[in-house]
Design brief:
With 167 residues, the chain is an alpha+beta fold. It has one domain (3-154): Pnp Oxidase, Chain A (Roll), CATH 2.30.110.10. It has four helices and eight strands; from the N terminus they run αβββββαββααβ. It has helices at 3-35, 90-97, 119-132, 135-141, and strands at residues 43-44, 47-55, 62-68, 70-72, 75-80, 100-105, 108-116, 148-154. Strands 1, 2, 3, 4, 5, 6, 7 and 8 form an eight-stranded antiparallel beta sheet that branches. The protein is globular.
């Protein structure tokens, strides 16, 4: 199937689901994902899903979203597509305001730093992302805004030092 047609078909199907059932199913998806520690809910027909938990920029309350992601070289990439809607998703504003986030990808849970890619970084990453999930390219045709790409960098914790011996 030609790339452009594939992008349109996948994008159209996912937009239809999002607009019809998405808002009702997302809270259930998050709950099942967490209850099963990622065993159920991590894999979707579109690809792997993670849970991104950010701090609301106005409320200060934790907010969680299930997002399709691509893992490359220890980094996790998500796209602020909002299904091609005209507005950015709220979580994007949250991570811009407070880049310290929590992530669950399958059974892995970790703290991370969210980095919104600049234009040059995005231009390099975009072909790989749209090859992985062609729907993102279709979403971009539905809106006038560029779809921002966010790289989630896991925070590596140093191993704690062994306790000092007491004499």
């Amino acid at each position: 199937m030609k790339t452009e047609l594939k992008q349109k078909v996948i994008g159209t199907l996912t937009v239809s689901f999002d607009r019809t059932f998405g808002r009702l199913s997302y809270p259930i998806h998050l709950r099942v994902y967490r209850l099963t520690r990622g065993f159920t809910g991590h894999r979707s027909p579109a690809g792997p899903m993670l849970i991104l938990t950010s701090i609301g920029r106005k409320s200060g309350v934790e907010r969680s979203n299930g997002l399709l992601y691509l893992e490359r070289e220890g980094h996790y990439y998500v796209v602020a597509s909002n299904g091609g809607r005209k507005n950015n998703p709220n979580w994007l504003y949250n991570v811009r305001s407070e880049p310290s986030v929590k992530v669950q990808a399958g059974s892995k849970r970790f703290d991370a730093t969210a980095h919104v890619l600049d234009e040059i970084e995005r231009a390099v990453a975009w072909p790989t992302l749209t090859t992985f999930y062609p729907g993102w390219a279709h979403y971009e045709t539905l809106t006038d805004r560029p779809l921002e790409v966010i790289r989630l960098d896991p925070i590596e914790f140093d191993s704690p030092s062994p306790p000092a011996e007491t004499a």
